[in-house]
Amino acid sequence: MPITAIDVSSRVKKLLPWIVAIAFFMQSLDATILNIALPSMANDLKVSPLNMESAVIAYMLTVAMIIPICGWVSDRFGTRKIFFTSVALFSLGSIVCAVSWSLPILIVGRIIQGLGGALMMPVGRLVILRVYPRDEFLKVMSFVTVPGLLGPLMGPTLGGGLVEYFSWHWIFLINVPIGVIGCFVALKFMPDLRSTIASKFDIFGFLLFASAMLLISLGLEGLSDFHLKPMMIVALFTVGVCCFITYWWHALRTDHPLFPPSVFKVRSFSLGLAGNLFARLGNGSLPFLIPLLLQLALGYTPANAGMMMIPLAVAAIIAKSVVQYLIKFFGYRWVLTTNTLLLGMLICSFIFVTADTPFIVLITLLGLVGAINSIQFTAMNTVTLFQLEDEQASSGNALLAVIVQLSVSFGISFSAILLVYFNGERPTSVSIDILPAFQATFFTVGLFTVFSSLIFYFLPKYIGREYKKKIRH
């Protein structure tokens, strides 16, 4: 779709990756801090630790539902206004979360955060996709995610310290000054890109697609909480699947569908989406599972659990610096197939983690998980968008963002269901008795990830492999 770039000077082009990185930093900091704080928040709000999954999923599901309008509102109102609004909403939601006195109020705050987060990163990534040529896209995206990884590096330690020595409320309040800076930077430097052609928004398709996501997610929540009757869960899944099928029937028969079916003719895009959906069910559950394992099963304090996450974040940053070279030398097919297989095996290896596991072994395991996860995220995201044409970029980018959020949400629900099943009942206190349930959950999630590596084997053989191109020419 044609676009008009306003004030995209060389200075702004240099600053743009940092602007998007601020948004990524806010989101990643919030996510890592929240996961460390879940047990303490559960105790204060008088709910079970595993019941706190709803606070995590509420955010991700809201993001997934709102993202489909990302391209349309950006084209209609301009990327600068939408990016500013998204940062402001995220900051407002953080304030609501900080003053929450019950789980329902916390969920409301997380939904408001989700409204901002739904547009924050997709709009930033869309601007980068449109401003930079394809041969610079991988390099710029890798750079953007490196500053953003400071969130996971600082989050666990900062969050653990705040929870242990102050209160969990501060994990949300620290977003506010970052949000103020983000709003200022967005107004001053964010390029105002918008479509020169008025496009129609597929309201009916959006309602069908959003309903499908909501109903299926509620069905998964019902499985993990045991609060819904089996017939109700079956009904939610059935109606959700019917909405999804109806959406694609509608998309094939309308001139301006929410997600044009033609975009799936790009093989790397289709396989990239499938890989994102299934592979992320495994690695997307790790930020939820690992802090709970450390605190509930191994008896770590919030501060100590936060410190244990540092090797994971440091390894992720280091791996980001080499991923583009791995892809250029070996290609997406080899990197993603091998890396997903390694990731699944690492997740399975948590079955051997106990309270007696040597410290150096646990640190090494977490570091390896961080490095492999980092390569996985960058490679999956870029291969999905790598071969899209300019007119496909907006819808393709939005659909990728939806799938990412859905897969992580489903991964957390899936792991919570497994924990409940293997433990027999929800844990209400720190106890070593829950360790076997965690071990079985990690093994099951890891095994699922191992099988998902087969998806990437069907990628075009030499896509992204510049070394092979030089040899052939």
UniProtKB/TrEMBL annotation:
Q: Which GO terms describe its molecular function?
A: transmembrane transporter activity
| Listed transmembrane segments | 15-36, 56-75, 82-101, 107-128, 140-162, 168-189, 201-220, 232-250, 271-294, 306-327, 334-353, 359-386, 398-422, 434-459
Q: What is this protein called?
A: DHA2 family efflux MFS transporter permease subunit
**Residue ranges annotated for the Major facilitator superfamily (MFS) profile domain, each copy included:** 16-464
Q: Name one GO cellular component term.
A: plasma membrane
Topology with respect to the bilayer: Multi-pass membrane protein
Name its cellular compartments. Cell membrane
Q: Which UniProt keywords apply?
A: Cell membrane, Membrane, Transmembrane, Transmembrane helix, Transport
* Signal peptide start-end: none
Matches recorded under InterPro entries: EmrB-like, MFS, MFS_dom, MFS_trans_sf
One matching Pfam family is MFS_1
Predominant subcellular localization, coarse grouping:
membrane
